[in-house]
Amino acid sequence: MKKILAALFFALLAMRLPAPIFINPPTFTEISYSPSNTVTIYATNYPSGGSWKLLTSTDLTTTNWTIIASNINWATGTYSITNVPATNGSAFFRLRYP
């Protein structure tokens, strides 16, 4: 059994699979929504790069979320966007990577 496991290990090693990439999610310290319809997200431990997307929906149970911002730049640790308010009084937001 040890020989089989060793052979499998070296076979996988020989395949030279790319190393997995682990992304630490940001820690959100505050998310606010102002009367002027501006969503502001404050975060620490934010990643560099611009693949984060902000999505919105008026229904948490739907799979139809609308991307309202993409390639979010976390350079300052905050991100703000002015959004049109929901007509039914409910607005939900989520971040997605990538």
Structure in a nutshell:
This protein has 98 residues and is mainly beta. The chain has one helix and six strands; from the N terminus they run αββββββ. The protein has one helix at residues 2-14; strands at residues 27-33, 38-44, 53-57, 66-70, 78-82, 92-96.
Description:
Strands 1-2-5 form a three-stranded antiparallel beta sheet, with no helix packed on it. It has a three-stranded antiparallel beta sheet with strand order 4-3-6, with no helix packed on it. The protein is mostly beta strands. β1 (27-33) and β2 form a beta hairpin. It has one domain (21-96): Immunoglobulins (Immunoglobulin-like). It has one helix spanning 2-14, and strands at residues 27-33, 38-44, 53-57, 66-70, 78-82, 92-96. The chain contains one helix and six strands; from the N terminus they run αββββββ. The mean pLDDT is 74.
